[in-house]
Design a protein that fits this description.
The chain is an alpha/beta fold. It is built from 15 helices and 14 strands. Strands 3-4-2-1-5-6-7-8 form an 8-stranded mixed beta sheet, with helices on both faces. Strand 1, helix 1 and strand 2 form a beta-alpha-beta unit.
Length: about 400
């Protein structure tokens, strides 16, 4: 097949579960003999317009980040131009869409014809906008907050319309969890016949238990005896990191040796730095910044527990699978797709809410009685999740997307 994937930022070393998904899925499709093209944005202006990675041709778009409108137009027009060029070389059998803006660029072409679009609904784009913009609108003076709130409402409304249009112009809507499939139905009225659930996977060779946890800690410069908690997240409000730091106040009262590592970058960083200092947690919480891809397996191996404190809109959580594949149990809030992963493994790993006291209680419960075992975590992932299983299902979907008639 000749396949096109359109995404936001797809770099093998950029970090984030969705980026690893783009890389792993397209690489495996190319290995199976398909011609795979990927349209995505540039992280830096000097990135090449086109490059081959693992048999996949990456086409990179310049993003105009001055404001929401310029950002959107640069993505839409750039994707439209690239798709028209690629379409002249031959038709595509299917288009796998992962981000609204470049998808709109493809939809705005005559060249698409009857090529089906399969839209992977990672989460409500407008809803994620709303959460982050609402948090930002609460900062600063009263007049500034009012202005930001009005701007937030306008941006969210536009984003919701654009997302609705992209979903309804797609032949099928793919979700990584039942939670996200239901969200697509509830918020955008995507009918059951057009929804398909295909869970994500994990590279079980890259993410595997450590032969020696002490050696992994020594490599990273971590203390050998302290209980180490880890989370790797984008530093955004909906990720629940503020609540996790607040939970550590309670944790250190009983376990003053506990150490929390927070990997990731984002706009919440200054807030977290201030909160850590004001809470007197400088010896118990470390902000790692961006964790390079090559270091990520070591951090999973060095940790005793991975914590996923999501507040809302947790579609699936590939980091959950990566930690479990590394033999590291995951404590997660009962939010979204996290429930579907952890419920079958061990319900005690689920925290009822993102309330700091409940997160703290979950952490202390685990530290007092660590369970499940690293072996059980690893077996669970091997038995239920793999990239090849996901790609098998996607390949079949791309070959036969017209289970229902769908829109044009």
């Amino acid at each position: 097949m000749r396949l096109l994937l359109v995404a936001d930022l797809a770099y093998p070393d950029h970090g984030g579960g969705s980026h690893r998904l783009y890389y792993e899925v397209t690489k495996r499709l190319a290995q199976r003999g398909h011609e795979v093209h990927l349209v995505t944005g540039k992280v830096t202006p000097d990135a090449p317009d086109e490059e081959w990675i693992e048999g996949v041709c990456y086409h990179r778009l310049i993003r105009d980040r001055r404001n929401f409108v310029s950002h959107g137009l640069s993505y839409v027009l750039g994707a439209r131009r690239v798709f028209q060029q690629l379409a002249r070389e031959g038709p595509f059998d299917a288009i796998s869409a992962h981000y609204v803006l470049p998808t709109l660029g493809v939809l705005a072409t005559r060249e698409r014809g009857a090529t089906p679009i399969i839209f992977t609904f990672h989460g409500p784009w407008a809803g994620e906008f709303a959460v982050e913009l609402e948090w930002g609108s609460q900062q600063g003076s009263a007049p500034a907050r009012v202005l930001r709130m009005a701007k937030t409402g306008a941006i969210v409304s536009v984003a919701r319309v654009l997302e609705w249009f992209a979903l309804w112009r797609s032949a099928r809507v793919h979700a990584l969890s039942s939670y996200m499939a239901n969200l697509a139905a509830n918020q955008y009225h995507v009918p059951l016949a057009r929804r398909v659930i295909i869970p994500g996977g994990v590279d079980t060779e890259k993410f595997s238990p450590p032969p020696d946890k002490a050696a992994a800690r020594a490599t990273l410069g971590l203390p050998p005896e302290r209980p180490v908690l880890l989370t790797v997240r984008r530093l955004y409000a909906r990720m629940g990191l503020t609540n996790l730091v607040q939970a550590m106040r309670q944790v250190v009262q009983e376990r003053p040796d506990a150490l929390l590592l927070i990997g990731g970058k984002g706009p919440l960083q200054p807030h977290l730095e201030t909160l850590i200092e004001q809470s007197g947690l400088e010896e118990n919480v470390r902000l790692l910044g961006f964790v390079p891809e090559e270091d990520l397996p070591l951090y999973y191996q060095a940790a005793d527990l991975f914590v996923l404190p999501s507040v809302e809109l947790e579609g699936f959580g590939l980091v959950t699978l990566e930690a479990l594949a590394s033999g590291t149990p995951v404590l997660g809030t009962a939010v979204g797709g996290t429930v579907e992963i952890l419920q079958r493994l061990d319900p005690t790993l689920l925290v009822p809410s993102a309330n700091p006291s409940e997160i703290a209680e979950g952490i202390l419960r685990f530290l007092a009685n660590p369970a499940p075992s690293p072996e059980a975590c690893r077996r669970y992932v091997l038995g239920h999740y793999s990239w090849d299983r996901m790609v098998d299902a996607l390949e079949a979907l791309f070959q036969n997307p017209s289970v229902s008639s769908g829109p044009p």
